[in-house]
């Protein structure tokens, strides 16, 4: 499938020129590895989700670093948490920039390791699914600001989708842009993989069946005001559990909580989020 240009590419390149290490995080299948390999073909690609490489990185990280020196791209780096200490040592031993590119699909683990070992040495960038502009190949790439000038600029490049419902069902994962991909099979497999590989590792979730029903309840409320009590009543859990599980979905990039807009910075924290936005749907930016 043809590579889709991502809107964060310039930010990733600038971070690579500024920091010794760049960490791109986000939900699974959002295109992190594909983008980094396209941007930095000269960096050695090291897939740590390969069982042999994962074992080597965990059992002998020093030897692993000797065999895979910078400039290098370590994919799924959260699988070898002990490696961050040695990445720090390599960064401190060099005055260069762009030594390492790291990517990973478990932000909870990644942020803990990165903050402890690579503080001040790493630029952290979160990658979401494809936006409507990216899917349509639109070159307009300015961040949203609530002004008429922005609206005029955006309007000059905006394209009306041919089939909006097809776009919504297809979602924003790069793999779903292939014409022969069945979105229903993709998402059912994605949920199963997410539950088995990620959620099962979290002690906050004891019953995966309850968590699956919780995800269905959350997905059904996409675009609505967040009401934890309402979700709790539907799945037979308390509101405190719903809040914990929401934080898991948010931290792992599955959902995005849209905070209310207010001109008062002090007032904003007191307001509750107005809607839940599921990552699989495209982002209209």
Description:
This protein is α/β, with parallel strands linked by helices. The chain is 44% helix and 12% strand. It contains 13 helices and seven strands. It has helices at 9-18, 32-39, 51-59, 61-67, 83-92, 107-117, 132-136, 148-157, 164-170, 183-197, 208-219, 228-235, 239-251, and strands at residues 21-26, 44-47, 72-75, 100-104, 122-127, 255-258, 275-278. The chain has a five-stranded parallel β-sheet with strand order 2-3-4-1-5, with helices on both faces. Strand 3, helix 5 and strand 4 form a beta-alpha-beta unit. Helix 12 (228-235) crosses helix 13. The protein is globular. 29% of the residues are buried. Residues 280-285 have low confidence and may be disordered.
Give the tags.
alpha/beta; 44% helix; disordered C terminus
Radius of gyration, in angstroms, nearest whole number: 20 Å
Mean pLDDT: 84
Amount of beta strand: 5-15%
Number of helices: 13
- List how many beta strands DSSP finds: 7
Gross geometry = globular
Side by side, the strands of the main sheet go 2-3-4-1-5
Distance between the termini: 23 Å
Would you kindly provide a brief summary of this structure?
The chain is of the alpha/beta class. Helix content is 44%, strand content 12%.
């Amino acid at each position: 499938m043809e590579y889709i240009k991502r809107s964060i590419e310039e930010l990733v390149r600038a971070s690579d020129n500024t920091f010794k290490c760049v960490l791109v995080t986000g939900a699974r299948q959002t295109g992190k590895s594909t983008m980094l390999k396209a941007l930095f073909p000269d960096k050695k690609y090291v897939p740590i989700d390969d069982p042999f490489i994962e074992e080597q990185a965990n059992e002998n990280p020093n030897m692993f670093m000797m065999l895979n020196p910078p400039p290098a791209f370590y994919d799924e780096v959260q699988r070898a948490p002990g490696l961050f200490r040695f990445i720090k040592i390599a960064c401190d031993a060099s005055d260069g920039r762009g030594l390492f590119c790291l990517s990973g699909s478990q932000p909870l683990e990644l942020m803990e390791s990165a903050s402890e070992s690579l503080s001040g040495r790493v630029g952290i960038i979160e990658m979401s699914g494809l936006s409507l502009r990216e899917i349509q190949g639109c070159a307009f790439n300015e961040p949203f600001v609530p002004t008429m000038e922005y609206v005029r600029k955006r309007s000059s490049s905006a394209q009306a989708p041919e089939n909006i419902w097809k776009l919504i069902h297809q979602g924003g994962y790069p793999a779903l842009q292939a014409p022969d991909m069945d979105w229903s099979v993709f998402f059912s497999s994605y949920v199963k993989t997410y539950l088995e590989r990620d959620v099962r590792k979290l002690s906050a979730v004891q019953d995966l069946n309850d968590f699956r029903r919780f995800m269905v309840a959350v997905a059904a409320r996409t675009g609505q005001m967040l009401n934890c009590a309402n979700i709790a009543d539907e799945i037979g859990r308390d509101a405190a559990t719903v809040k914990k599980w929401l934080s898991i979905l948010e931290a792992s990039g599955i959902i995005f909580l849209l905070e209310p807009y207010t001109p008062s910075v002090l007032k904003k924290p007191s307001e509750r989020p107005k809607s839940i936005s599921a990552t699989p749907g495209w982002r209209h930016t």
